[in-house]
Amino acid sequence: MLRYPIMWANISLIFGLCFVNAIFSKDTVSFVRTSLFLICFFILYRIRFKTSCLVIGGVTIAMLYGYFFIQRSCQHIEKHAIDGTFYFEKIFRTPSDRIGGLGNVYLNDHTYYNDIYIHIKNRSGLKVAENKLYHLRGTLYPLKSPFNASQSFSYYLWARGVRYHLAYAQLIDVEDNPFPSFMQRLRGYFRKSLQAHFKDAGKSNTYQAILLGKKELLSEKNLSHFFNTGTMHLFAVSGLHVGVVSTFLFFFFKSLLLPKIFRLFFTLAGVSLYASIVGFSPSTLRASCMVLFVIVMQLCSRPVDGRAAFLNTAFFALIMNPWQIWDVGFQLSYGVVAGILGLGTPSAKRLSTQHNRFMRSFVASLCISVSASLISSLLTIYYWGVWTPWAFFVNLFLIPIASCVVILGTISFVTNLIFPSCLWIINYLSEHLIALLLFCVDVCARLPGSVLKVSCSANVFYTCLFLFFLYMLKSHEGNSKSLTHGP
User: Fold this and answer.
1) In sequence order, what are the residues at sequence separation of 6 or more whose Cβ sits closer than 8 angstroms to the Cβ of residue 472?
2) Which of 129, 345, 368, 454 is surrounded by the fewest CB atoms within 10 Å?
3) Which residue blocks in 113-181 are alpha helix, DSSP H?
4) How do residues 78-88 score in pLDDT, each as one tens digit?
5) Among 40, 73, 106, which residue terminates a domain?
6) ∠ CA 229-231-234 to the nearest 5 degrees?
């Protein structure tokens, strides 16, 4: 296994950060559990003494790196009063009497603070909007460490690089941003393309939520229906969105008879632009890096290895920001991809033996859907205490519909740039496709037993993850040996 250093680096980094979590949270049970998992890993893989020393050394280095990174991130910062301008980048769904979101603060002395979390009472009934400036007066408070916190939202904020929050502040509406950046103008232009010619505001909001990851635009009814059917991942810009966009762009440029190097370059440029517009969330970053890895391998005329791309992106993402390993979005994103690569794809290859092409595609889709639902169900049971048993079935026909919606959204953006007069045709098709998607979700949400209340302890949750982790490594080792030694 030492022939695969990225896999060993991932193992060391994951175990090291688990130990760091136990140290900072002062949880003895977590520390003992991680130690037992590491010992079981050595026993099950029959790792020799010399190799064990290398692994222990790697875990120690990863633990020291994570410890000092987190300790530096959590270093004491003072609260201080501010008076300046606040720019909303992301608005959270909150009650009507509150305002919540992320943004940047620009002070009058030309200093600024990026990624500030704001959660204040809306006494004046102010209606806030993204990509808009507001006059701000209040106090910046340092964000507390998420360890020992009872909620996972703190990990989300730290993974996004948030270090300050505004709990008491005054917001006053001012004119629109007089000097928007290029990306701000492009993001606003994309939203206008998705809003144009829609007769129903609810369908337009769903369209934007799918393409831009804006779950806060959904109504309470639609939000509950998507959650109860296990299809909330459609609004997290991830591998589905980036994969559909990259595939569409590649075949579009191929239809223009461009040379291969230009097709790959323009595809990568388009994916990077889309990821910049929607924001580099962990899922978007992971998917974009995997596309980059695949394109580099094709340019080098090397076989594309999905597991290698997955391990590479996971390692470098955690090296850049170790906080992400405790973020639920990161775990869902990488867990689902790991399930597809470790369970879905091998099962599809073994079971897709029918000569009928349609049956082969159906069985492969079913295997991938079930494997993705298994991992996501484990996480939703642990964090939210619910299980959606119909999710694997619903995703079979909702994912193709959502993929078509993503393609139409990409076409609408390009059409609005080149042929604005033809935009109504694209959005007309999109509105009817969104109507079909909402109808299917509404029907599936009414199925008996669509949502079940299930609880899961931490020991059961981490044991299941560890067993899947071992299975993933074992299957990767077997596939690598078969590729090395041949049949």
Assistant:
1) 338, 341, 342
2) 129
3) 153-159
4) 888 888 888 88
5) 73
6) 160
